[in-house]
Specification:
The two termini are 25 Å apart. The protein is elongated, with a radius of gyration of 22 Å. It is built from nine helices and nine strands. Strands 6-7-5-8 form a four-stranded antiparallel β-sheet. The protein has a three-stranded antiparallel β-sheet with strand order 1-2-3, covered by helices on one side. The longest helix has 16 residues. It is of the alpha+beta class.
Length: 276
C-alpha cells in the first residue's frame, strides 16, 4: 500500500529491531520484515529513532553529518507565464534547427561561478549577472503542465548563500528578482509574460521536502562523504546499527542526482538480508 500525506513521527522498535512506524496522527503501521528510510540520514537516525537507541559514538557521528555545503545553499524560482517563451535569437546563432525550448540549459560563466562561490561562503548574494542557473521549460516537453499556449519555467540557482547576511526573509525577494532579470536576457518574453512566481531558498526546500538543512543531496557531496563514508563512517552499507532498519535515498552511496541508484542499491541490500 502507498499512503500519501502521512508524515512519520517515529520509528518503533520491537525487541531491539525496527518494528514499524508511527504516523503524525498516531496511526501505527507494523513492518513484518524491515523498515527502509528514504529520507535523509539525520532525519532517520537522529529524529525518528527513539532517544538512546544508538550507541553514543554513532549518535555523535550522525549529528556531525554535514548538510550545509560549507555555507553553499541553493535557490529555485518557479515562474508561471501567460504565453510561450522563445529562444529564437540563440536558435538563429546555432543555425542547426534545434528547438532550444526542449533541452535543459545552463546559464553563467566560469568566472562568475568562482565569484559566486566566494560570495556565498561569506553569506553574500551573487552579483547581478553572475548567478549560475540551470533552467528548464517543463511545458516544452509536456504541455499538459499549463493551460494551452502557456509555459512554466523553473530557474534553479546551483549556488546561493546557505545563511545569507541578514537572513533569507530580508533578501529572498531581491534574489528572486535578480534571477529572473538574469534569465530574461536569454528567454524571450519572460518579463512580459510572467503572471506568477514562487521563490524558494534552502530553508523552504528543507520545510517542503523534510530534508535536514534543505540539502537536496541529503548529505554534502564531498570526497569525505563518498563510498563507504557516506553518510558517515560505519553507516556506509545501507544497513544501520538497528536490526531491520535500512537507509536509502540521496544520503547513501552513490549520492545525489536523479539516478535512483541509492534506492535501488538499498532495496537490493535489504532484500538480500531478509532472504537469508
Amino acid at each position: 500500500d502507498v499512503v500519501c500525506e502521512a508524515p512519520v513521527a517515529q520509528i518503533t522498535l520491537k525487541g531491539g529491531r525496527a518494528g514499524g512506524v508511527v504516523l503524525g496522527d498516531g496511526t501505527e503501521i507494523g513492518a513484518r520484515r524491515a523498515v527502509l528510510g528514504a529520507c535523509d540520514p539525520r532525519t532517520t537516525l537522529e529524529r525518528l529513532l527513539p532517544a538512546g537507541t544508538l550507541d553514543p559514538d554513532i549518535e555523535r557521528r550522525v549529528r556531525a553529518i554535514p548538510v550545509s555545503n560549507a555555507n553553499y545553499g541553493q535557490m529555485k524560482v518557479d515562474v508561471a507565464l501567460s504565453g510561450r517563451l522563445n529562444l529564437t535569437r540563440h536558435e538563429k546563432w546555432r543555425g542547426d534547427g534545434l528547438n532550444l525550448r526542449l533541452p535543459s540549459h545552463m546559464l553563467g560563466t566560469e568566472a562568475g561561478m568562482e565569484q559566486t562561490y566566494a560570495r556565498a561562503a561569506a553569506g553574500l548574494l551573487p552579483l547581478p549577472g553572475e548567478f549560475s542557473i540551470w533552467p528548464v521549460i517543463p511545458t516544452a516537453a509536456d504541455p499538459s503542465q499549463a493551460p494551452d499556449g502557456q509555459d512554466v519555467l523553473y530557474l534553479y540557482s546551483a549556488v546561493a548563500p546557505y545563511q545569507p547576511e541578514g537572513g533569507w526573509d530580508a533578501v529572498k525577494a531581491q534574489a528572486g528578482q535578480a534571477i529572473v532579470d538574469f534569465a530574461s536576457s536569454y528567454y524571450g518574453g519572460l518579463k512580459d509574460l510572467e503572471i506568477g512566481r514562487q521563490v524558494l531558498c534552502n530553508e523552504d526546500i528543507g520545510r517542503n521536502a523534510h530534508a535536514t538543512g534543505g540539502n537536496i543531496a541529503h548529505v554534502d557531496m564531498t570526497l569525505g562523504r563518498t563510498g563507504p563514508l557516506r553518510p558517515a563512517r560505519g553507516l556506509g552499507g545501507f544497513r544501520t546499527p538497528v536490526d531491520a532498519l535500512y537507509l536509502g535515498g540521496s544520503g547513501c552511496h552513490p549520492g545525489g542526482g536523479i539516478t535512483g541508484a541509492p534506492g535501488y542499491l538499498a532495496a537490493k541490500e535489504m532484500l538480500r538480508s531478509i532472504r537469508t
